Amino acid sequence: MLMSITLFLKWWYGIGWKQEFAKIQKRAVIIAQEMSLTILLKTLFQPWKQLVSYVPKDTSLDDKLRVVFDNLFARCFGFVIRSAVILVGILLIVISVILSVALVVLWPIIPFLPLAFVYLGLFA
Amino acid sequence: MNVLIKIDFNHPRVKKAYLNGRLSKSIITLLSVLGLLMIGLGVFGLLMGVKLSWLAFIAPCYIFMLAEWWRQELANVLPTHTSQKPEELLDYKILDNFVKSDNDLEDLIRVLEKQMGYRFMLNRLLGSSEIVKSCQLNVTPEDFWSKLINLWEQNYDEDGVDSAHICTALILNSSNAKELLVSANCSEQDILSVLRWYLYVKKTMRTLKERRNSGGIAKDWAAGYTPILNRFGRNLTSEVAYGSVLNRAQNLHKDIIDQMVSIYDSGGRANCALVGEVGVGKTTSVQGFAESLLFGDAPESIKYNQIFLVDTASILSSASAEKLDYIVTSLFLEAYKAKNIILFFPSAEQLFDSGKDKIDLSDTVLPIIQGGRVKTIFSFTPKSWQDLERRKPAAVAALNYQVVQPTTREETLLILENQSMFVEQHYNCLFTYKSLQEVYHLSERYGPDIAMPAKAIAVLESAGRQNPKSLITKELVQKSVEATTGVKLAIAGDEERAELLNLEEKIKQKIVGQTEAVKQVVTALIRSRAGVSNTNKPIGTFLFLGPTGVGKTELSKALARAYFGGEAKIVRVDMNEYITQESVHRLLASGGQTTPTFLDQMRINPFSVVLLDEIEKAHPDIKNVLLQMLDEGVMRDNDNHNISFKDAIIIATSNAGADYIRQNISEAHRNPSVAELTNKLIEDGIFKPEFLNRFDSTIIFSPLTFENLRQIVGIIISELNDKLSSQQLSVELSEGAVDWLAKNGYDAMLGARPLRRLIQQTVETAVSNKILANEVSSGDVIMLSENDLALLQ
User: Fold this and answer.
1) Would the CB atoms of B61 and A110 count as touching at under 8 Å?
2) Of the candidates A35, A47, A41, which has an alpha carbon nearest to the alpha carbon of residue A88?
C-alpha cells in the first residue's frame, strides 16, 4: 500500500504534471484540426463551394458586372462562414487552454484538497 | 526445477502492472459516475446550507486522481528501456500474472495460458499446450532471457516482450525442438511467421484505437458540389475514412502509391493508368492511395483530395448515346470545378469500346486526358490496354501508365493474414496458419480465373462461408474446395480407401476381357489418391488401341460411374469434329458460346474423365495442341487463360491398327506387343512418336472371344433385371439363348456393339409382350429360350 502511494505521488508530481503541461498544446491542436483551422485560413477568400460563374467572350457589360458581383458574393459568403468557424475554433481553444492551465496550476494541490474539504466540513 | 524467468516483485513496474490488473475501464467509469453523483450531492447540500456537504467532495478528489493515474500511466505501462531486466521489458499484462519470483516451465505456462498472444500461437499453429509442456530447456534464466530479448528485438513489439515471444522462444530453444516441431507438424519458419502475424494483428488493433487527423469539419468547404458524381460514383475516400484497414495494402503497393502521389503533385498531366490482370489489386492500390491522401503525409497540393470510383456501366446504361457525351463531359467538368476530386474508372476500357452495340466515348474523353487538368485514374487489364494501344495510340500516349504485378507467395500470405481478420469477424470462425498456406496452395490451382491475391482471397472467403463458427484447418479448406470444384483433394479416408481397393473388381464386373486396361487405369487413380503421383500432370493419360466394340469407351464410362460420380463426369470430345486446321480455334474456345465448349466443361468439372474419341482422326495441329495437356495438365484457351487438367484422367481411344491386331491374332495367335503396334502406327504416319510418348501408358484392347461375349450378355441381362426389379420381375436365359445372342450379336467390324441392340430387339421385346399380355405377375421369373429369341429377330 505504502509503495503504491509512493508510486502515485512520484507520478503525480513528476511525469503526471509534465503530461498535463503537454496536454494543453495537444488539446489545442486537436480542436484546431477538428475545426480545420489551417484549411479555413488558407481558403479564407475562396468562393463558397466553388460556386463561380464564367463570362463568355461576347457578353454585355451588364452581364459581366453581374457575374463579377455573383463571384464576389460567393467569396464574401465563404469568408463570412469561414471566419465564423475560425472564431468559434479560436474561442474553443482559448477555453480549453484556460481550463487546462487552471488544472496544471491546481495540480500540485489536488492531493491536499480532501484535507481542505474535511476542514471546511467539520471545523470552518 | 529449472528456473527460466526471475521476477522481482518490488520493482515499480511490477507493482504498477499489479495495480492495473485490479482496475479496468469499467471500474474507472463506475467510480467516475459515483464521483459525479457525490459532487452533485455536495453542491446540493451546500445550496441547502448543510456544511457537512463539503465532505462529499473528498471521494471525487481521490477518484479523479486515481482515474488520471490509471488513464495516463497504469493502463499502458510501456517498457522503460532503462535496463534489460524482465521487469522492465515484459509486457505489463504478463507481469501482473506472476505469483512466484522463480518461475520454471510449469509456472510460465500457467502465466501464459491467460494471455492472448499465447492462445493465438496455440490456436493458429500448435494446437494445444501439450507441445509447450513437452519443451526440454537446459538453460540458465540469464541465457533464456537473453535469447528471448534477441527474439523480441528481431520481432519488435512496443508493448514489450509478449506471451507469443515467450512461447516461440520456449519451443525454438528447447533441446527437443526438432521433435516438437514434427509433432506440431510445422517448421521453425512457420512459428516465426505466426509470431509475426500475431504482432501484426496486435499493431492493427492499436492503430484502430489511435486518433487520426482526417482534415476536420471544413476540409471540403473549398471544394465544389458534385451532384452528378454522387449519382454515378462512390466516394472511396469516405469508405477508407470509416474503418478500412489497409496498412498492408499500402505497404505492398507502396511503389505504385508513391508513383501516383508524384504524378498528381508534379503539375504535369494529372492522370494515371493502372495496368494489371483482374485481381492483382488495382482498386486496392487506389484505396491505399486514398488512405495516404487522407491520413498519410501527402503533399499539400493533393492532401484531402477525394477519390470517386465512377461506375461506367451505370453511366452507359443511364442515357441514350447522344446524351452520354453530355453526362460524361459534365462529370469531368464537375470534378475539375470541385478542385479536390480524383476520378477513378475501374473498367476504363468501357469508355473506349468500339464495335456493335458498344459506345465509344473516346472522342469526349481523349481531349480531357490530353489536357491533363482533370485528375483521373484509369484501370485496364493488359489485354484491354494492348487493344487501346492498337486502336487509340493517342490515348495511350497521353496516359502515365503503371503496371500492377500479381503478388508473390509471401505477399499473398501476408494479405491472407490481413483478410482473415475480416472473414473471421464476419463468419465467427478462426483460421489456422496451415489453413492459410493451404488456401494459397489450392487457390493457385482451383481458385477462380483471376490473378493473385484476389484468387486466394476468394478461396479464403469461401472457406469461411462454408465453415462458420469453427476452427478452420487445412482439412476444412480442402473440403471447402472439394465442395466447390468437385475435385477430391484430401488423402483418401478409410471408406474411400476401401472403395479404391475394390474399384478394379467393380469395373471388371462391367468390362469383360480387358484386365490389363482396367488394372492400369485403377492403379493410376490409386497413386493419385494416395498422394504419391506427380501433381503437375493429369492423374493418368492413356491411349486405348483396339478394334471397334471391344470396350474402350465402355471402360471410360464404367470408371466415371464407379469413381467419379456418374457418366455426367465424362467430358467427351469426338475428334471426328476436329479434322481441319481451323478447328484448333474451336477446340480452344471458352466462354461466351451458346453451348459449353470442351474447355468450358473442363472449367466446370476439373475432376472428370476426359474421353478423346477416335484420336487418330484429329488434325495434326490439334494433336500438337494436346501435347501440353498430356504433359503439363494445362491447356491455354484463345484468351490465354490456363485450364487445368491436373485432376482428370485422360483417355484417348483409337481403332487405328485394328486390322494389324486382327491379322496378328489370326496369324500368330497372339496380340501384337505395344511396341510392335505403335511402331506400325508411326510407320503408317498416323501418330508421331512425340505424341505417343506423352501417354503414361498405351493399352491394346484385344478382340472379344466367344466366351467374353457370353459374359457381356450376362452383364446386359443383369442390367435389365435391375430395371425390372421395380415390378418384381426377372428374366432368365437358357444356355442356348445366351449362345445364340453371343453368336448373332457380334460383328467383325463393330465388335460387341450390335449385341445390346439385339438384346433390346429380342429379350426386351419378349418381356414387354408378356407384361402387356398379362402373362406374368409380380414375383415371376421370365424364362426365355433360343427359339423365343429367334422368333423376334
Assistant:
1) yes
2) A35
d(CA B567, CA B570): 5
Strand locations in B262-387 (E): 271-275, 306-310, 341-345, 376-380
Residue B216: list chain A partners with CB under 8 A.
33-37, 39
pLDDT, tens digit (0-9, with 9 covering 90-100), for B755-782: 888 888 888 888 888 888 888 888 888 8
Which parts of chain B sit beneath pLDDT 50? none
Chain A CA closest to residue B216: A34
Q: Which residues of A touch B225 (CB under 8 A)?
A: 49-51
DSSP B685: T
Residues with Cβ within 8 Å of B742's Cβ and at least 6 positions away in sequence, in order, are B706, B709, B710, B712, B713, B755
CA dist B381 and B25 (Å) reads: 51
* CA distances for B170 relative to A38, B134, B165, B182, B190, angstroms: 53, 10, 9, 15, 15
Chain A residues lying within 8 Å of B211, measured CB to CB: 30
What are the backbone angles phi and psi of residue B91, rounded to the nearest 5°? -55, 135
The predicted-structure confidence for A24-61, as pLDDT tens digits, reads as follows 999 999 999 999 999 999 989 988 887 777 777 777 88
Residue among A19, A36, A82 whose CB faces B72 most closely:
A19
CB distance B237 to B287 below 8 Å: no
Tell me whether the omega of the peptide bond preceding residue B453 falls within 30 degrees of 0, making it cis. Answer: yes
What is this structure's pTM? Answer: 0.81
Phi-psi category of residue B695: left, alpha or beta, with phi > 0 → left and psi -120 to 50 → alpha: beta
- Cβ separation A46–B222 shorter than 8 A: yes
Chain A interface with B: residues with Cβ < 8 Å: 3-4, 7-8, 11-12, 15-16, 19, 30, 33-37, 39-40, 43, 46, 48-52, 78, 81-82, 85, 110-111, 113-114, 117-118, 120-122, 124
By the 8 A CB rule, do B308 and B343 touch? yes
B58: closest CA of chain A, how far (Å): 5
Shortest Cα–Cα distance, B405 to chain A (Å): 37
Confidence (pLDDT) at B120: 96
Average pLDDT estimate for A72-93: 94
- pLDDT of B778: 81
Distances (CA, A) of B169 to B91, B140, B313: 15, 14, 55
Q: What is the DSSP letter of B407?
A: P
Q: Residue B304: its chain A contacts at CB < 8 A?
A: 39
Max mean pLDDT range (A3-12, A88-97, B224-233): A88-97
Mutate to test the interface with A, among B20, B217, B295 (most CBs of A within 10 A): B217
Element (H, E) at B233: strand B233-235
Q: Say what the pLDDT of residue A103 is.
A: 95
pLDDT of residue B1: 63
Contacts with B465 (C-beta within 8 Å, 6 or more apart), sequence order: B427
What is d(CA B212, CA B201) in angstroms, rounded to the nearest whole number? 19
Q: Which three cell numbers stand for residue B776?
A: 406374368
Dig out the grid coordinates for B563 from the structure.
Answer: 469413381
pLDDT in tens, B309-359: 999 888 888 877 778 888 889 999 999 988 889 999 998 888 887 655 666
Give the residue on B whose Cα is nearest the Cα of A109: B61
- Closest residue on chain A to B51 (Cα): A121
Whether residue B204 contacts residue B245, with contact meaning beta carbons closer than 8 Å, is answered with yes
Cross-chain Cβ contact A4/B19 below 8 Å: yes
- Amino acid in the structure at residue B769: N
C-alpha cell at B120: 493465438
Beta strands at B102-103 and B5-6: parallel, antiparallel or unpaired = antiparallel
Which positions in chain B touch A113 (Cβ < 8 Å)?
57, 61
Start-to-end Cα distance in chain B: 94
Helix (H, G, I), strand (E, B) or coil at B322: helix
